Amino acid sequence: MGMKLKEAKIRVRYQETDKMGVVYYSNYFIWFEVGRTEYFRGLGMPYIEFEKNDLYLPAVEAFCQFRAPARYDDLLTVVTRVSSFQEVRITFEYEVIRDQDGEVLAQGHTEHAFVNGQGRPVVLKKQNPFLWRRLMEAMEESED
């Protein structure tokens, strides 16, 4: 079950690197968030709309495999897609690619639960039919 891809550009900032000039590992999870945010924006549902609708997506799992280092001033593309989508949770997959040579620097995923402002699980189809429909449509578009 694949969904359409969304790409986001990142330019590595000096503060994201360590003494060796390599990007510190925790920054990849920040870039995953950028990818996720742009994915939802591309569906016509910026994340701010989730909060307005009492809907939140806390991470319940996060994973990243580092294959090659990113360095200061590299231009990167974060490719984001939904790999799994159910009524109460969603999983995103990510690739971080260096634009200069196309090398995949990291691959990972995050899994998120749909919850309300009290932190209780919600069924997305009932809580936000618009977003449910958009995600279902995106899934169908990618299968065509």
Key features?
144 residues, alpha+beta, Thiol Ester Dehydrase, Chain A, 4 helices, 5 strands, 31% strand, elongated
Structure write-up:
By secondary structure, this protein is of the alpha+beta class. The protein has a single domain (6-143), classed as Thiol Ester Dehydrase, Chain A (Roll), CATH 3.10.129.10. It has helices at 27-42, 47-52, 124-127, 129-143; strands at residues 6-11, 59-66, 75-85, 89-98, 104-113. A hairpin with a 3-residue loop joins β3 and β4. The longest helix has 16 residues, at 27-42. The termini are close together.
Brief overview:
Helix content is 28%, strand content 31%. With 144 residues, the chain is of the alpha+beta class. The protein is elongated and about 50 Å long.
Which SSEs are present, and which pair or pack?
Layout: E1 6-11, H1 27-42, H2 47-52, E2 59-66, E3 75-85, E4 89-98, E5 104-113, H3 124-127, H4 129-143
Antiparallel strand pairs: 1-3, 2-5, 3-4, 4-5
